[in-house]
Amino acid sequence: MSAPDPTTHVRVDLTRFDENLRAVRARVAPAETMFVVKNDAYGHGADVLVPRAVAGGIRWIGALDIEAALHVRRIAGDDVRVFAWLLSARDDLAAADAAGLDLGVGDRAILEAAASAATARPMRVHLKIDTGLNRNGVRAEDWEAFVARAAELQNEGRIRVEGVWSHISEASDADDDEARARFDSAVAAAESAGLAPEFRHLAASAASFLRDEFRYDMVRVGAFVYGISPSGGPHESELGISPVMSLRTRVVDVRDGRAVLPLGAWHGVPSTAAGKTTVGVHGAARQVDRIERDWMTVLCPDARPGDLVVLWGPGDDGEPTATRWAEAVDTIGEEIVLKVDRRIPRLYR
Fold first, then answer.
1. For the chain, which domains are there?
2. DSSP E strands, 147-272
3. CB atoms closer than 10 angstroms to residue 106
């Protein structure tokens, strides 16, 4: 007989993950899909999901920083490309070179440091242009000199420019169109400097799904693979994805028509959501009443101790999604799943 599930746990639905991954790859093809696993695969567990994604055909993984990228390299093997972009000149760039990582470089000092660290082979770099988001990219007025220096370093055999990339805000179509025009100009300038980047990548989840002109050669997708839709945007069913994570617990007491749950702000449940959202009990939505440090209450007079409660998930038990919780407190779904206490067990089904 198998052991019962812990009273409070996170369930990670591997079947939904596989389906989301297939849906994303089909939607953005022929562009390559980079599967983004920052923050331990958005709290879902990179050690489990990275090998599964590779088995599902993923050839690129985005891992945020060098430490995370080296871990991904160990669990994914040598047949995939691993991209890290949150860098400083003080990072262990020699280890990145030895592991064959791809580095997103948006700063002259980091470019020079990466070139100096390359010993095993030319360092693979992707040059980042700031297209208006002001997120650690090279400004337009400095770009021409930057790509000229990159071309010199490539000719010396110290780096290999694999790509040009950027982030966009996804705040409005007009803002994103302006960013795309800046990106195209940056690519043209890189090519004029003698570079031939194989991979142009600009879009993340939303833009990659909704605007095919933003796909270029590769897209970086995190949220949608986990089934997290954008706050205020299309719902999961409209996108053809489904939430992979559900946060589950059980009623420990019932007082004055309120079910008491052993979860609270200390576990990552946002206290400001009290009175603004629901959970799933007995297959129906029930109003959240209070959220304290290590407990919360739900309006559910017919609850009994031991009853299953699902705070958020795909909706199978009447619960809202993480994105609906996020909208209640004016944030994004990624923030909701990332804040779940890592000490809560993850169960993979």
1. 31-225 (3.20.20.10), 245-348 (2.40.37.10)
2. 159-165, 199-201, 218-221, 245-250, 253-255, 258-261
3. 22
Count of Cβ atoms closer than 10 Å to residue 141 Cβ? 7
Round to whole Å and give the CA distance between 234 and 230.
7
CA–CA gap between residue 54 and residue 76 (Å, rounded):
7
Tokens of 48: 């489990």
Q: What is the pLDDT of residues 24-68, one digit of tens each?
A: 999 999 999 999 999 999 999 999 999 999 999 999 999 999 999
Strand order in the sheet with 253-255: 253-255, 258-261, 296-299, 284-291, 278-281, 308-312, 245-250, 9-12, 346-348
Tell me if 140 sits within 8 A of 181, measured CB to CB. no
Start-to-end CA span in the chain (Å): 17
Give one DSSP letter per residue of 279-322, joined into a string: EEETTEEEEEEEE-SS-EEEE-TT--TT-EEEEESSSTTSPPPH
The Cα-based distances of 10 to 41, 45, 106, 109, 326 in angstroms read 14, 11, 37, 42, 18
Decide if 108 contacts 88 (C-beta within 8 A): no
Model pTM score: 0.95
